[in-house]
Amino acid sequence: MPAVINPVASFSPLYAQIKALILARLQASEWLPGEAIPSEMELAARYLVSQGTVRKAIDELASESLLVRKQGKGTFVATHQREDWHYRFLRLAPDVGQQLLLKNHFLLCEIAKPNPRISQLLQLSAEEGLFRIERVQSFSGKPIVFEEIWLPVTRFEGLTLDALKSWPGLTYAFYESKYATHMVRAEEQIKATSLEASIACHLDLAIGSSVLSVERVAFTYGDQPVEVRRALYDTTEHHYENKLN
């Protein structure tokens, strides 16, 4: 049965209502990352609106990198499996020369003690469990990133260190494939700090060395926070790059 839009439900433009309906279907995993969504004509019939209205809704979702248009093929749900998305959320770049290709080395994956601040960032109750992960990323054999990652146990149930180590690609692609969790945006706080002894050894740096601290909260559909990570970057030969429009 076609979906009927309630005209009293919202004063937003019709295309914005269609956008919200499509987003709700993405959130419900009706169309998974990498899969094609129905055509504009099919969606127009489903929602009882014009094809132009659907097109405008899809245009907005594509501009937000939630959908990807492919000429002659259709519209697809964005995925972190795409090669050009490999470093969408990584802003670290070499000062000179080659592209940054990082190699992962996971050190730890455990169910952690309650952490009030992390629970608050993830909008969890104090009783809900958290995974704590440690990872080192290296470039050309040299460690340059140390990360502490926090995930809610309820969403990532059964996660193990072996599963992380055996995954060949990006962590966000792993979340997509194994836990139907697609990261759509992130918020970061950046500041300079000095290395503690427990982390300095992982980066082959002296205790007290200056590094860049980047704390990120990543969100899935519906603005739901699902990951907190704190990354410490060795910026001796690298810099944090952000392009502003």
What does this structure look like?
- The protein has helices at 14-27, 40-47, 51-63, 116-121, 161-166, 171-179, 197-200; strands at 67-70, 74-77, 92-94, 103-112, 130-139, 142-152, 185-194, 210-220, 224-233, 238-240.
- With 245 residues, the chain is an alpha+beta fold.
- The protein has two domains: 14-77, Orthogonal Bundle (Arc Repressor Mutant, subunit A); 83-240, Chorismate lyase-like (Chorismate lyase, 3-Layer(aba) Sandwich), CATH 3.40.1410.10.
- A hairpin with a 3-residue loop joins strand 1 (67-70) and strand 2 (74-77).
- Helix 1 crosses helix 3.
- The longest helix has 14 residues, at 14-27.
- The radius of gyration is 21 Å and the shape is globular.
- Keywords: DNA-binding, Transcription, Transcription regulation.
- InterPro entries: Bact_HTH_transcr_reg (IPR050679), Chorismate_lyase_/UTRA_dom_sf (IPR028978), Tscrpt_reg_HTH_GntR (IPR000524), UTRA (IPR011663), WH-like_DNA-bd_sf (IPR036388), WH_DNA-bd_sf (IPR036390).
- Residues 12-80 form the HTH gntR-type domain.
- It comes from Polynucleobacter meluiroseus.
Shape: globular
Mean pLDDT: 89
**CATH classification, class level of the largest domain:** Alpha Beta
Helix share bin: 10-25%
| Percent of sequence in beta strands | 25-35%
**How do the SSEs run, as a string of H and E?**
HHHEEEEHEEHHEHEEE
**Structural class label:** alpha+beta
